[in-house]
From TrEMBL:
Family to which the UniProt record says this protein belongs: Belongs to the FMN-dependent alpha-hydroxy acid dehydrogenase family.
Domain named FMN hydroxy acid dehydrogenase: residues: 20-384
Organism of origin: Kribbella deserti
Names of the cofactor(s): FMN
Pfam families: FMN_dh
Keywords for this protein: Oxidoreductase
Protein name in the entry: Lactate 2-monooxygenase
């Protein structure tokens, strides 16, 4: 069995629920519908939908269905070890909490609950620039932590974010490149709802001395407009990455890469890692499914860069498929947010524990002692229906 802190998972995980009916489903693919009962229409409308017609999010899910695991027998998989070190961070399993902004939309405790839950399982939490709690507030309760940068156009504010992240113990910089501006999101547009226009998700900005120094007055509306001007940063080019290298000592990961050409450019520009991701389908409608982009990118740069993956990962079985297609770790997005909506920190822990247990069981039953043994031969393409 594999061990995660105090929690024995895998086969023993089933014992967790043997005498009680869990309040939250153990079928992680059903979390979204269960969470709908706890969330306002505005919050659900922001979290669940994707860009445009939703075709990228549908493609993300469909891509997982096109691969089937091929379980192997008699391979002695009684003991498993899912631990790994990713970019210098020790992890009990190849799972990282994806950066997600405005988590108070899901639960009043927001990022604090998520960071506590991740720490309880020894997992790494990634702090979004758009969080509802600041770097420093989260650092007080978090375990291992990475920082996700939405690169503001203002150089002073950017430098201040990097400084604050460093000073409060965030070890890896994850630069999200696919959100130079928000995608076309009809669900939000039709409702006239964007959380940050109400001042939500701006804790890092509102607590920032460099940002405050730019404001002409104390009016919240002025601050929000100022943020909006700094957020959109579509002018960035590959050459700009040298600025981050100069001002960030630790590993740098580019998030939102789905083309082999960009993956090669990331390697040429001295980056340390990638997250193959299409932002859960929230940015470009009709974009390539993230899982379909993964094998080509892993083949092209997997030896040089730490290739990670998100977008559409819902279950431990999904994670096994992404690992088999070349990811060194997966990031979990919406599912933990549904756990947060359902029961705060306890809800996130439930989701993470179920996810890890299912991953561990999947490995055990497919004949693997270690997730690194997963490879292309672990999968077969589903027959075309
Ligand atoms: C409500 C919401 C907010 C998000 N905010 C951020 C963010 O602030 N920074 C970021 O890099 N990605 C953000 N993402 C994208 C996630 O990091 C991740 O790429 C995505 O959720 C993966 O897709 P999935 O949830 O369908 O698996 C957000 C996603 C959601 C659903
Ligand atoms: O909604 C998102 O996908 C996202 O990344 C974001 C961007 C700005 C503010 C909050 C979340």
């Amino acid at each position: 069995m594999a061990n995660f802190g105090d929690h024995q998972l895998g086969i023993y995980a089933q014992g967790m629920f043997a005498h009680t009916r869990p309040e939250i489903t153990t079928d992680l693919s059903r979390l979204e519908s269960q969470a709908a009962g706890s969330l306002s229409a505005e919050a659900m409308g922001y979290i669940v939908p994707s860009a445009g017609s939703g075709s990228t999010a549908r493609a993300n899910s469909a891509a997982f269905e096109r691969w089937r695991l091929s379980p192997r027998m008699l391979r002695g998989s009684a003991e498993r070890d899912l631990s790994c070190t990713i970019l210098g961070t020790k992890m009990p399993a190849p799972l990282v909490i994806a950066p997600v902004g405005v988590q108070t939309l899901a639960h009043p405790d927001g990022e604090l609950a998520t960071a506590r839950a991740a720490a309880a399982l020894g997992l790494t939490y990634t702090h979004s620039t758009q969080a509802s709690h600041s770097f420093e507030q989260v650092a007080e309760v978090a375990g291992d932590r990475w920082y996700q940068l939405y690169w503001p156009t203002d150089r002073d504010v950017c430098l201040s974010f990097l400084e604050r992240a460093k000073a409060s113990g965030y070890s890896v910089l994850v630069v999200t490149l696919d959100t130079g501006t928000l995608g076309w999101r009809p669900a939000d547009l039709d409702r006239g709802f964007l959380p940050f226009l109400k001042g939500e998700g701006l804790a890092n900005y509102f607590s920032d001395p460099a940002f405050k120094a730019k404001l002409a007055n104390e009016e919240p509306a002025t601050a929000v407009m100022h943020f909006a001007q700094m957020f959109s940063n579509l002018g960035l080019t590959w050459d700009d990455l040298s600025f981050l290298r100069e001002h960030w000592d630790g590993p740098i990961v580019l998030k939102g890469i789905t083309s082999v050409e960009d993956a090669k450019l990331a390697a040429e520009h001295g980056m340390d890692g990638l997250v193959v991701s299409n932002h859960g389908g929230r940015q470009v409608d009709g974009a390539v499914a993230a899982l379909d982009a993964l094998p080509g990118i892993a083949d092209a740069v997997g030896e040089q860069l730490t290739v990670m993956f998100d977008s559409g990962v819902r279950t431990g079985s999904d994670a096994a498929k992404a690992l088999a297609l070349g990811a060194r770790a997966v990031l979990l997005g919406r599912p933990f947010l549904y756990g947060l909506a359902l029961a705060g920190q306890a809800g996130v822990e439930h989701v993470l524990r179920c996810f890890l247990a299912e991953l561990d069981l999947t490995l055990a039953l497919c004949g693997y002692s270690n997730h690194r043994e997963l490879n292309r031969t672990s999968l077969v393409p589903a027959p075309k229906s």
